[in-house]
Design goal:
Blueprint lengths: L1 H9 L8 E3 L7 E7 L4 H26 L6 H4 L3 H17 L7 E5 L5 E6 L5 H13 L11 E7 L1 E4 L2 H16 L8 E9 L6 H12 L8 E2 L6 E8 L2 E8 L11 H9 L13
Helix pairs in contact: 6-7
């Protein structure tokens, strides 16, 4: 009876995505999303459908099949190291089939928040930015989501300690602030903490700001309103995630808040200051 009912229910229904329960472990990339209270599962399903469609659209079959492209560090590995790395990768895939998934949602057991882990070739900063640009396009009238509110990319994450935070910042900030040809930039830092009291917010800001300027070596300056780059720091339980977004984040893309983007299309004159208070 139960089996038959399950089969009948599955006919013609949407694909159901895997959810893992627990925490966000260190050394992962992904996307946080806020949503309407008590609709976390529905929001995750909405995003799973949207993200899967955009992954296929943005990256295509060829890149997805070869999505674990070599980084500069991997290219410098010896032949023996590369072989060992490939063997470890194959072993990991054989022992955990979830490793083959580009998108995997984590049930955080936290109201109004969901998290989607991502794998290469997805780059959360670029992936989310492109989606939000499409939503902000005046030609786009279909909202696609009902419960999802704001998206926050996480380029990489670490355990919650100041030493690990500094290492994380060096890794995430380098392509934005530390290139040899990097011009002086105005920057700001935004910290969001959920179920997190390991490190004080001000300590996090100081540590990240220190790494942005390379302890005074780089001529970048703080500008909380008219920044060129904004460093997003997401703290959840024992995990700290980080990414960097551009100046269009605040106004043009409404802090990546899907609800606010479409509200601005309906009432363009009444929504100018709404993003300043949106979390």
């Amino acid at each position: 009876m139960g089996k038959r009912a399950a089969e009948d229910h599955g006919a013609g229904s949407k694909k159901k995505y895997r959810f893992s329960t627990g925490i966000v472990e260190p050394c992962v990339s992904g996307i946080y999303a806020t949503c309407a209270r008590k609709h976390e599962k529905q929001a995750a399903q909405e995003l799973a459908d949207l993200f899967q469609e955009k992954v296929e659209e943005y990256y295509g079959d060829e890149e997805l099949n070869n999505g674990n492209g070599e980084s500069e560090l991997e290219k410098e590995l010896s032949v023996e190291d590369q072989i060992n790395k490939e063997l470890e990768s194959l072993k990991s895939q054989n022992t955990d089939p979830r490793n083959k998934e580009l998108l995997r949602f984590v049930d955080l057991n936290c109201e109004c928040v969901v998290f989607c882990k991502t794998r290469k070739p997805i780059v959360p900063e670029k992936f989310v930015h492109r989606i939000m640009q499409e939503f902000a396009d005046p030609k786009t009238s279909h909202k696609r989501t009902r419960y999802v509110q704001k998206l926050t990319p996480v380029s990489f994450s670490c355990n919650a300690s100041l030493s690990e935070l500094s290492k994380l910042a060096q890794r995430v900030l380098e392509p934005h602030f530390h290139r040899k040809d990097s011009p002086p930039l105005k920057f700001a830092i935004e910290v969001v903490r959920r179920n997190f009291n390991t490190i004080d917010k001000l300590e996090i800001i100081k540590a990240v700001a220190k790494e942005v300027g390379k302890d005074g070596e780089m001529p970048h300056t703080v500008d909380l309103k008219n920044y060129d780059k904004l460093v997003l720091v997401e703290c959840f339980k024992n995990n700290i995630g980080m990414s960097v977004v551009d100046s269009d984040y605040r106004d043009a893309l409404k802090k990546y808040n899907i609800q606010q983007i479409f509200l601005a299309k309906i009432h363009p004159d009444s929504n100018e200051d709404s993003t300043s208070t949106t979390k």
